[in-house]
Amino acid sequence: MSRTSLLTAAIVGTLALAACSKPEADAPTAATPAPASTAAPADPGSSHPFGDTINAADFAEHVKTLASDEFEGRAPGSAGEDKTVAYLEAQFKRIGLQPGNGDSYVQTVPMVETVANEGTVVKLDVKGQPRELKFGSDMVIGTRTGKNEVKVDGSELVFVGYGVNAPEQKWNDYAGVDVKGKTVVMFVNDPGFHGQDPKLFEGKRMTYYGRWTYKFEEAARQGAAAALIIHDSDGASYGWDVVKNSWSGAQFDLPAKDDPEPRLPVQGWITGDVARTLLSSLGQNLDELYKAAGKPGFKAIPLQAKLSVDLKSTISEKSSRNVVARLPGAKRPDETVVYMAHWDHLGNHGHEGHGEAAPAGSDNIYNGAVDNATGVAGILEIAEAFSKQQPPPDRSLLFLAVTLEESGLLGSKYYVAHPTVPLDKTVAVINLDAMPVIGKARDMTVVGFGSSELEDILKTVADGQQRVLHAEATPEDGFYFRSDHFNFAKAGVPALYAKGGDDLIDGGMEAGQKAQVDYRDNRYHKPGDQYDPSWKLDGVIQDLDALYGVGKTLAGSEQWPNWYEGNAFRAAHDKLMKPAAK
Hints:
- Residues 25-53 are annotated as: Disordered.
- Residues 1-18 form the signal peptide.
- Keywords: Aminopeptidase, Hydrolase, Metal-binding, Protease, Signal, Zinc.
- The protein is of the alpha/beta class.
- Helices cover 27% and strands 23% of the residues.
- It has 14 helices and 22 strands.
- The chain has an 18-stranded mixed sheet that branches. It has a two-stranded antiparallel sheet with strand order 8-9. A two-stranded antiparallel sheet has the order 16-17.
- α10 (454-464) links the parallel β20 and β21 (468-471).
- α10 (454-464) packs across α13.
- It is globular, with a radius of gyration of 23 Å.
- The two termini are 32 Å apart.
């Protein structure tokens, strides 16, 4: 995740993950560091007769396998990871690809697993009156400190608008207020979003300042003891159930030494209803605050309330795995085009220590068929096509299936920090995440449209398919920052994230948008995201053909695409490539 078009309004990339079978959350222990289990299933492959070309039958076989109950929702650190990694290795070997990390198909990703005690209660002192917030129904919280117990006692609440400090925008919600040791409360998305002010930031399109991850990072930089984001479905682009499911149970982080970004002692979300009631009791009106916080010159508002919490968590040091395979180029093997997708999903919620288990007899497995077995199946199909291509590609192809996307793009973050191919030799990255399975469309959605010269190549391919390119329908949802290509983009590597659009051949925009909403409301980050034999796969095959065409052009040429002039990532690319004098 992550996710547009069919999934445009649904997908977040970067929420935290749930996982399988963990120690009880109310009995914290520090586990001995250990790698993920390496036990493989007896038959990680498939008896399906795979063909040489991108086709629906092969694509469906991969998705059915990866999204089966046997794979238990593909949670990092679980038996489902073992099965997934074994399956991907077996498929890459069958296709004829070489190991992509030296002599190995895997790259170990260290991770810290934190399971918060979901009996935790946040205690508020509101003008001298006590109030308690319960985990799941009122709030979700966690810690990224790696500590078994974190206490916050009597921390004063401060409302900081959107929690943004953006000097280039001449905007600082922290101006004139010292929040050291305090608890900041803030809105999700960018200033101007709720007031629909096109003059603020990038108008309707979310910037990185609108992401919840940024808001916690900035609060940590400001010295806050805790931070709470006020949830609203429009601003977040997903409902409270998504927040609750994603913050329940095991949460994963890179160790602090592998991730230098600042971390808060306590961070989380509160529901919109809780926020409205709390603010009203403090003489504030939530609707009026939305208006005030979206205007230049907004000043933070100290609140007559204090927060206390004793957060106990089970901490385990473990590891997960990226899976990496390589097809060497015939003429310039050191230059590489990367295809990537995240293999992880939300695991099995029926196990102990994994958040709120579903009732007995109900479906506990979050299979993640669309999100993101479809993307993994896609890179396997594209790998198959490249392995049979004649003449073979001049440049190398790297196929990267990353872990921990649902935990904040951690697997790709680790890869970018420890690449198996130098980033200045990485020509481009093509990311596949949550591919639409609703039939052929007259269009393709390019998430972050207008970003790089990769779109020029895609346009040529799409023209041949008689399709048009356009931006995502809801750029305010910030999907560009919610999938794994973003870590490559920040490093300067041109990245393309594109998929089928909404204007379906069968049913037009109405049918496409209806399917989009149906997925968001009924299956996204829910047990209902399962393989369905009634899927219309002709569209996703057309999408894969188009994305294969982009890579084929790059792998058969000497092009070094750049970000468009004025793009925020162009400077990083130019700095990255300068030593190579490309």
